[in-house]
UniProtKB/TrEMBL annotation:
It is found in: Cytoplasm. GO terms for molecular function: oxidoreductase activity; RNA binding; zinc ion binding. Pfam families: ADH_N (PF08240), ADH_zinc_N_2 (PF13602). This is NADPH:quinone oxidoreductase.
């Protein structure tokens, strides 16, 4: 008899009413796959970009989307020896793969799956997978951030920024970040050495003043647009800029040329190794999840709306979904 599950199915591209809660078939488990009972997932900017149709060519409808999972293995494939039924795991489903995380069950290739940190709830773990893996790749693999270097993190109070501040601090960096004044104590509590109010201060002037014109070694951009254009103005010689935002329009990056800057455009690649490394920091309490809002799966549209409103809701950290 075919198993069925509840899922939030994207039936059209567009607004918050684009999802329908449906009964759908549970995918079969291949030899190197595991079936996971999803306890929690989360919402990322990538998720609402997919819903709007920004990546319509990669997402045939109807689709089950979503990019974070924490849950418990209920079935293993015939060639899986790394995990057993009952193991708690967390991971990011294959981006633009056959099924995302907005469902009661998920089938994943075993190489994507990592053991959930024991000290985290499923909601906390689900808030970390896509964001944590992305920030790890940005700092460790791409920017190769080193002890004693200085980094500017744009958008420190957001879902990505809250993890980025903590990871940069754990790596021994001096951390500057932008945030509204109401979030300054919060981001400093995460480890930021300097918080700059982007609404009332010119971060370029502030950083060049604080560093005596030397600039920062790394800029981490989660905003795009003018932020990407202007970031070289605070960059040290041979500095690195890492951005998570695609270039929607041509950018004049002449200032980066004079600083011999390197650019890294990150679209995260999923694998167990990054999550295992992140788990070590989570287990030691050096990085802690920040959850700003919780919604049930049947209110996935409301969760998307809440994240997109962002600063209007005074949101700090991630929006998570209990499944």
């Amino acid at each position: 008899m075919e198993r069925s599950m509840k899922a939030a199915v994207l039936t059209k591209f567009g607004g918050y009413d684009a999802f329908e809660i449906r009964d759908v078939a549970v995918p079969a488990v291949g030899a190197r796959e595991v079936r996971v009972r999803v306890h929690a997932t989360a919402v990322n900017p990538l998720d609402y970009q997919v819903r709007r149709g920004d990546y319509a060519d990669y997402v045939p409808l109807p689709a089950i989307t979503g990019h974070d999972i924490s849950g418990v293995i209920e079935e293993t494939g015939s060639d899986v020896s790394e995990f057993s039924v009952g193991d708690e795991v967390y991971y990011t489903p294959l981006i633009f793969g056959p099924q995302g995380s907005y469902a009661e069950q998920h089938v994943a290739h075993v190489d994507l799956v990592a053991r959930k940190p024991k000290n985290l709830t499923h909601e906390e773990a689900a808030s970390m997978t896509l964001v944590g893996g992305t920030v790890w790749e940005a700092f460790v693999t791409r920017a190769q951030l080193r002890v004693g270097e200085t980094i500017l993190i744009h958008g420190g109070a957001g879902g990505v920024g809250t993890v980025a501040i903590q990871l940069a601090k754990a790596m021994g960096a001096r951390v500057f970040t932008t945030a509204t004044s109401g979030h300054h104590d919060f981001v400093k509590g995460l480890g930021a050495d300097l918080a700059i109010d982007y609404q009332t201060q010119d971060y370029i002037e502030v950083i060049n003043d604080v560093t005596g014109g030397a600039g920062v070694d790394v800029v981490f951009d989660t905003i795009g647009g003018d932020t990407l254009t202007n970031s070289p103005l605070v960059l040290a010689q041979l500095g690195r800029i890492v951005t998570l935002v695609d270039i929607a329009q041509p950018q004049n990056l002449i200032e980066a040329w004079g600083r011999n800057a390197s650019y890294h455009f990150v679209f995260t690649r999923q694998n167990r190794g990054k999550l295992d490394a992140l788990t070590g920091l989570l287990d030691r309490g050096l990085v802690k999840p920040v959850i700003g809002a919780r919604f049930p799966l049947d209110r996935i549209g409301d969760a998307h709306a809440y994240l997109e409103a962002g600063s209007a809701n005074n949101l700090r950290g991630k929006v998570v979904i209990t499944v």
